[in-house]
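@channel anyone free to eyeball this complex?
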Amino acid sequence: MTETPSTYIYVTFIRSTPEKVWAALTSPEIMKQYWFDMHQESDWTPGSPWRLLFSDGRVADTGEILEADPPRRLVFRWRNEFRPELKAEGPARCTYEIEPVEGAVKLTITHAMDRPNTKFIEAVSGGWPLVLSNLKSLLETGQIVIKTHPGKGS
Amino acid sequence: MNDDAVFRALADASRRQLLDRLHRRNGQTLNELCQGLDMSRQAVTKHLAILEDANLVATRRRGREKLHFINPVPINAIAERWIGKFERPRLDALAKLKKKLEGEEP
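replying in thread with the prediction:
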């Protein structure tokens, strides 16, 4: 049996348009509303740097854009910067795929590392469902559900 | 995506068993998922299709193989529907206490 890389795939269906979903995934102002006050910074063009920042401005993660095809597909490298044991594992690859499906949008997020059993992919696997539920609620109703990351207390 | 499909998919013990197996090791092929199960290949295929329709399983092609991944997003949505942000830390604490008392590592 071949060793499976560490991969998590998150799929959510959002009643929205690809353009709105793309804007929500790339605009720091919208992101802050559903990402527990964190936000990403990039100009979202291939080769450009990418960063995920805490609300106080500290850098959580860094990377760079590998592919960008708005509003359909975005691929970027994602490396943890604030937990040494995760940083040591090197960069993961994150892919957003946005497809229109029967009046809604299917958003698929693939977070993968080329090695099996990585702590990093384990760590992000708890966060994505919360972020995506919030994103879905925000786009569909204008409000989010979870204001504080449960793992970080409230 | 409707909640009925998610609940119907989760209402079957065989399908929960398949989700448990994917939770232990994500990204398995149909052959891997069939190993050691008391279910025919056809039955596993049918259960996986129901799980995929409910968006509880996502699939990816790798060459000729189809890999199956557990998708926790709909389960999280169900939890959020009834478990607000205030209750969650308390429920987490209770779940940890239960695990500890029952002798599992938290």
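from a first look: Chain A is about 30% helix and 35% strand.
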